Amino acid sequence: MSTPETFYDQVGGEATFRALVARFYREVAEDELLRPLYPEEDLSGAEERLRLFLMQYWGGPQTYSEQRGHPRLRMRHAPFKIGLAERDAWLRCMRIALDEVELTDEQRDRLWRYFEMAAHSMVNSWF
Ligand code: HEM
Predict the structure, then answer these.
(1) For each successive 10 residues of the chain (127 residues), what is the average pLDDT?
(2) Closest CA to 21 of 60, 51, 53
(3) Residue-range domains of the chain with CATH
(4) Which residues does ligand 1 sit against, CB inside 6 Å?
């Protein structure tokens, strides 16, 4: 019996998440609000962590947790001041990336709804 196809498989697997996250970080690199939040000069480590996290979240390989342990994303974002402006800037970058990756409308909507919810849950500064 074959295992059912995951959303990760349906959208094209690793190549799709690689393209999405690479495009996202090209936008972050140019964003005056977001770029200073990233502690490392080279964004490639951050890019790899987000790519592996998303691949795992959507049913792909569990490499993120093998390397980083339980995601605990709210806790991992606690050191960074994330207000509504930072949330909106993050979503702006992701919207651009999402619109450029080859997906069906349904797949794009599903990913976007998730990103809106997840970005909102990362807000840790309300004033
Ligand atoms: C890490 C900012 C939302 C997933 C980070 C880092 C920053 C950051 C500064 C540290 C970079 C690094 O790993 O070197 C933000 C801001 C957000 C946001 C400003 C606005 C709301 C999100 C969302 C997700 C996410 C919505 C998931 C859908 C991750 C992951 C890491 C990370 C997986 C790496 C965690 C680790 O393993 O250390 N983020 N983030 N972030 N972010 Fe975000």
Answers:
(1) 88 98 98 97 98 98 98 97 98 98 98 98 93
(2) 51
(3) 9-121 (1.10.490.10)
(4) 34, 37-40, 45-46, 49-50, 53, 68, 73, 76-77, 80, 82, 86-87, 90, 115, 118-119, 122
